[in-house]
Amino acid sequence: MDLKAAAAALKGLHAPAFRLDQVRRAVYGQTVSSYEEISVLPLDLRQELAGAAPILSFIPREIKIAPDGRARKAALVLRDGKAVETVLLKPSPQRWTACLSTQVGCAFGCVFCATGLMGLERDLTGEEISDQVLFWRQHMRREGLQDRLDNVVYMGMGEPLANYEAVAESLRSLLDPRQHGIGARHISVSTVGIPDGIARFAEDFPQVNLAVSLHAAQDDLRSRLVPANRAFPLAKLARAMEEYVGRGNRKVFLEYALLSGVNDRAGDAQDLIAFVRGLGRTELFHINLILYNPTQTPFEATAEPEARRFQKCLLDAGLKVTVRQSLGAEVRGACGQLIADRSPDVRQP
Ligand code: SF4
After folding, report:
1. Gap from CA of 60 to ligand 1 centroid (Å)
2. Residue 326 pLDDT greater than 70, yes or no
3. 116 alpha carbon to ligand 1 midpoint, in Å?
4. Whether 330 contacts 340, CB under 8 Å
5. Same-domain check for residues 28 and 113
6. Which of 55, 84, 97, 128 sits a CA distance of 20 to 30 A from 157?
């Protein structure tokens, strides 16, 4: 929702200032899906606003819902006809998490990621990013889902720190108590590890969580999996993370998607242990081992028993590590699977 456009439209119509507050409360507080529902507004204002400042900056095209209802993926058609995907997950009984996309496609080409296969088509605007949360809140209201959506991860399509200004604008909307009002500690931004972006992010959003997609702790292997490593090798990434934790004792989440026979061997665990120990302050680094989800890429998932063995090596070395619960595979909304696919719908929004 572009509140500035709504304010300009109301001003043009000589509406009193309190009308904007009424719109804001209805959109963010009551999560109305259309101006028609804002009955306190005169009819002519509702009609004008619907044209001048649509509540959502995209049209939801389809929503897929996993059989147990805990993972939902939506395809969103943007004003220029391009499409992105966004995901809603319920990792625990009372908690809903929205996974946001920040770009149409991605230029970084991580070899295990379906989005990376698309290349970059364009950046999303701040409005298109934060509207994904608005969209899921509207969906939850329509579906009668009781619990709050108060957890957001920037882990969908795209590299957030490569679209910094728009991501920053969306974060301000999520944090603003008069808009989404989500606590900073409930928001995580994930990056392949762009050092300048990490420094800027630390300065601008010191309370928002940082996650780094590591996936390998040895340069040759990481450069093969995450090509950005050629520009920002592990030593540079390590320095950026050390500076980050040095600023405010904030924790960093290290994401590590386990690929069978590629980065899940005993030697890979030892490389990871050495890398994290080399960062100092090991208590501030938390490793998330991700059970990889099959995509169009040629990799296979590490089976859970092997993942547990890998985890045990790291735990025995005194590191903090969890195997991340895998949600969303049924709707192709799990980690690394977002590609705005056009497969048949399960349910219309
Ligand atoms: S993992 Fe993230 S940065 Fe890498 S290609 Fe996929 S979307 Fe881009």
Report:
1. 23
2. no
3. 5
4. no
5. no
6. 55
CA 275 vs. chain centroid, Å, equals: 26
CATH value at residue 220: 3.20.20.70
**Residue 22 DSSP SS3:** helix
> Residue 342 has what pLDDT?
39
What would the pLDDT profile of 205-226 be if each residue is shown by its tens digit? Answer: 999 999 999 999 999 999 999 9
Active site (catalytic) residues: 85, 335
- Domain end marker among 55, 70, 100: 55
Is 255 close to ligand 1, i.e. is its CB under 6 Å away?
no
Measured in angstroms, how far is the CA atom of residue 113 from the centroid of ligand 1?
6
Tell me what the mean pLDDT of segment 9-32 comes to: 95
Residues 66, 175, single domain; the answer is yes
State how beta strands 95-99 and 149-154 pair. Answer: parallel
pTM attached to this predicted model:
0.92
Q: Which residues span the domain enclosing 225?
A: 56-331
Pair type for strands 285-291 and 149-154: unpaired
The reply to whether 160 and 238 lie within a common domain is yes
Domain count, the chain: 2
Cβ of residue 102 lying under 6 Å from some atom of ligand 1: no
Alpha carbon nearest to ligand 1 atom 3, residue: 159
| Domain membership flag for residue 340 | no
198 exposed, middle or buried (CB, 10 Å; 0-12, 13-18, 19+)? buried
Question: Exposed, middle or buried: residue 270 (CB in 10 Å: 0-12, 13-18, 19+)?
Answer: middle
Residue 349 Cβ inside 6 Å of ligand 1? The answer reads no
Whether residues 220 and 315 fall in one domain: yes
Q: Which residues sit opposite 123 in a β-bridge?
A: 103
Instruction: Report the share of the chain in percent with pLDDT over 90.
Output: 81
Higher pLDDT, 114 or 141: 141
In this structure, what CATH number is given to the domain that contains residue 27?
1.10.150
Ligand 1 nearest atom to the CA of residue 114, by list position: 6
Answer yes or no: is 337 within a domain: no
Q: Are residues 48 and 130 in the same domain?
A: no
In ligand 1, which atom is closest to the CA atom of 103? 7
